[in-house]
Amino acid sequence: MTEEQTISVCCERTSNPVQKVQSRTVEKWNERWEEGKTSFHLPHVHKLLAEHSKTLINGRKGIKILFPLCGKTMDMKWLADQGHTVIGVEISNIAIQQFFVENNIEYTINHVDGLVKGEVYQSNDRRIQIYICSIFDISSDIIGQVDAIWDRAAFSAIMPSEREKYRDVIISTMNAYTRYCLIGVDFDPSVKPGPPYHAPEVAVEQTFGAHLTIEKIGEMADLREKWVKMGHKYFTDILFLLSLKA
Ligand SMILES: C[S@@+](CC[C@H](N)C(=O)[O-])C[C@H]1O[C@@H](n2cnc3c(N)ncnc32)[C@H](O)[C@@H]1O
């Protein structure tokens, strides 16, 4: 059984209420980090971010960028090194600790007012702040509003039944100037259940279309060996730019 299949099987077998499914999912992600089954992690900045960061930043200096379900992505350090403040949200403390240790960044762990089940890991210069909690426990009351959002393997890691709840959290952090870059994924969903869950343009439209404008701005074939071994014949990352409707 592949690492992706382990998680989806656990989620699909249970007939318990949503809350229980959610915490079981969190448990599975933690196990995955503990066992080092993290092939989603890229050892470099994502190509679509490197190509489209100007669109995300839009000429602004020192902006606040949200990374939902951040893992230990190098995209955070890359943008922090450019003078921006990054706000990550991640449920695994292993991922967060690895991020700081592997990047040689000193940090402290601090209490967060209003966050019952969580804390924040902060670099000494406060430019990198990673909240250890479920994304569903985050709101603008805790992190305020953000200028930009980088969503790679976050929306597509959320179970389809929880997409609207995820949307509400994300939208609560946005204002009229927030630029939200989301990578959707297109593949043959009959090959295997998620995560990643099938998240093509129609899913992005169904989830966000009533509230946000959606523009496709990039695309990248991502048929890596692990997808081929699973039986995929195509696997495409599609980059969308979303912003609040006027
Ligand atoms: C597919 S990985 C993507 C990580 C990162 N965005 C990247 O590009 O490498 C999804 C991450 O979300 C975390 N995660 C899963 N469910 C979560 C939740 N409800 N709240 C916060 N983090 C979550 C997992 O631990 C995992 O690190």
Outline of the structure:
The chain is of the alpha/beta class and 246 residues long.
Please explain how this structure is put together.
- The protein has about 250 residues and is α/β, with parallel strands linked by helices.
- The protein has a single domain, classed as Rossmann fold, CATH 3.40.50.150.
- About 35% of the residues lie in helices and about 25% in strands.
- The chain has nine helices and nine strands.
- The protein has helices at about 5-15, 20-35, 45-55, 75-80, 95-100, 140-145, 165-170, 200-210, 225-230, and strands spanning about 65, 85-90, 105-110, 120-125, 130, 150, 180-185, 210-220, 235-245.
- Strands 3-4-5-2-1-6-7-9-8 form a nine-stranded mixed beta sheet, with helices on both faces.
- Helix 1 runs antiparallel to helix 2.
- The protein is globular and about 45 Å long.
- The relative contact order is 0.14.
- It binds S-adenosylmethionine.
CATH class: Alpha Beta
SS summary, helix count: 9
The radius of gyration is: 17 Å
**SSE string, helix = H, strand = E?**
HHHEHEHEEEHEHEHEHE
Largest sheet: 9 strands, mixed
Q: Classify the helix fraction into a percent range.
A: 25-40%
The CATH topology, please? Answer: Rossmann fold
CATH homology group: Vaccinia Virus protein VP39
Extended strand count: 9
Q: Give the assembly state of these chains.
A: single chain
Q: Report the uncertain regions.
A: 1-18
Which CATH architecture? Answer: 3-Layer(aba) Sandwich
- Strand order in the largest sheet: 3-4-5-2-1-6-7-9-8
Question: On the 0-100 scale, what is the average pLDDT?
Answer: 91
Bound molecules: S-adenosylmethionine
Globular, elongated, flat, extended or rod-shaped: what is the shape?
globular
